[in-house]
Amino acid sequence: MARTDRFAGRVAVVSGGADGMGAACTERLAREGARVFVLDLDGPKAERLAGRLGARALQADVTQEAGLTSALKSVEAEAGRIDVLINIAGGSAPGLVAELDTAVWDRLYALNLRSTVVACRAVLPVMRRHGGGSIVNMASISGLRGDPGWAAYNAAKAAVINFTQSLAWEEGRHNIRVNAVCPGPIASARMLGGLKAGAMAASYDRATAIGRMGRPEEAAAAILFLASDEASFITGAALVVDGGLTARTGQPTEFDRTLGD
Prior knowledge:
The protein is an alpha/beta fold.
């Protein structure tokens, strides 16, 4: 069982913290002693979750730099410090490269990469002043491999991984660790709602070595490990949490039928 005091006395911000993996992180941080700020576009949902956990809700659109920066500055003004930043907020959209409008590319860049850059820039001075901190950025296994029809999303998540590695080196001497998590298929309400049919969900289940999609709380466990002092010598990492999906080449083999039994 996980320790219940890993984040005692820490101030943590979770962007996109009101549902899915973000909510799972918020709940576990609160359970493990953190003072948590739930930053989300859906203000009422953030308020409901924060109220239940004794946390604080912040409404902000992460694609709007001024609003996001203001929200993060308000955390320091209220709590005096920021020790942990978890950037969950993001999004995706399908479309072939030859057909997808550049406006969609721009939106996914802003939602996934630019918002992460802005949030990190806002908290770095705070963390430096207080002797360090930990940042975990939401990447994806889609940032490690290509997926036809998802190039805009994949490219943005690949950029998050490289940004994370660069920032880890820039801030390491300030005792600020920066890592990324790369989830595979996680059965959040949003993902399940986006699947067109039960057969598609079954295909995702079969794509993992474990034979099922992950749960938001399983992704949260990995994220909070990276955010905690238990990962004190880990920075610049991109931790894959995908049930083994990327552990194989994808080539068909004579054993596939046996593995499916």
